[in-house]
Every structure is written in C-alpha cells, then in structure tokens.
C-alpha cells in the first residue's frame, strides 16, 4: 500500500521559514518524480515544486513563479523522503501543502499558516 505522510507545517510569521517533510512508503521511491502542491481555500491545487531525480545536476528542480527563489525542494532516495524548505514566507503562502508521487499518489496534506 502506497502511503505519503507530510509533516512540518504550522504557524509562522511573515518573513519566517518552515521545512516540510514527506515520507513515502509502498513504492520504489527512486523511480518516481516527486512534487509539492499547495491549495488555498476556494482554489485548485497548485504545483509549486518538482524533483524528478535525486541527482539535481541531471534533473534540475523546477518551481512555480510564486516560489522560485524562496523555496527549495530536495529528496533523499535512501530515506524515501522529499523535503520543501520554505524561506521568506508571505501570507499568500498560507494553505495546505501536499506531496505527490508520480502525479498519482497523494499525502493527506499539512497546513501552513503565515500570519503575524
């Protein structure tokens, strides 16, 4: 059974940072592209970061316009985990953050709230 579990969300002040982790079980993690999505109330899930491979020099990371330069996606194929480092957070970054494997499997999401 494939399972994705996100953690690390919470409340942070504007300008702060958070690190999210997604732990994956039940699939050959290294073979799958991994994604982070974000969903705010009343909107569709937005793809914000992509990590196709554990070797960034061969498969560069990709980011949405709203996160490029502030967020960093990484993955550890040995641990079967994908990470999202978030810096210079803004209130518009508030939402539920989901990790996704291969465009198929989803985690339950973790809430991030950026507010003073």
What does this structure look like?
The chain starts with a strand and ends with a strand. It has 116 residues and is an all-beta fold. The protein is built from no helices and eleven strands.
Feature tags:
116 residues; mainly beta; seven-stranded mixed β-sheet; four-stranded antiparallel β-sheet
Helix count from the secondary structure assignment: 0
- Indicate the overall shape: globular
**How confident is the prediction overall: mean pLDDT?**
93
**What's the alpha carbon Rg, rounded to whole Å?**
13 Å
> What is the share of helical residues?
under 10%
Largest sheet: 7 strands, mixed
Poorly predicted runs? none
Percent strand equals over 45%
The tally of strands reads 11
- SSE pattern, N- to C-terminal: EEEEEEEEEEE
Q: Based on helices, strands and strand pairing, what is the structural class?
A: mainly beta
N-to-C CA distance: 40 Å
SSE inventory with pairings:
Blueprint: E1 3-7, E2 10-12, E3 18-25, E4 34-39, E5 46-51, E6 62-63, E7 71-76, E8 81-86, E9 95-101, E10 105-106, E11 110-114
Parallel strand pairs: 2-11
Antiparallel strand pairs: 1-3, 3-8, 4-5, 4-9, 5-6, 7-8, 9-10, 9-11
Summarize the structure.
The protein is mostly beta strands. It has strands spanning about 5, 10, 20-25, 35-40, 45-50, 60-65, 70-75, 80-85, 95-100, 105, 110-115.
């Amino acid at each position: 059974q494939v399972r994705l579990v996100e953690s690390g969300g919470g409340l942070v002040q504007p300008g702060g940072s958070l690190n999210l982790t997604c732990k994956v079980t039940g699939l050959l993690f290294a073979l799958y592209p991994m994604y982070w999505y974000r969903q705010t109330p009343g909107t569709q899930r937005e793809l914000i970061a992509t990590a196709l491979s554990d070797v960034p020099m061969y498969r560069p990371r990709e980011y949405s316009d709203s996160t490029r330069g502030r967020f960093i996606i990484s993955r550890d194929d040995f641990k079967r985990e994908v990470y999202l480092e978030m810096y210079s957070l803004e209130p518009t970054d508030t939402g539920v953050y989901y990790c996704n494997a291969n465009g198929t499997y989803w985690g339950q999401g973790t809430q991030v709230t950026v507010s003073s």
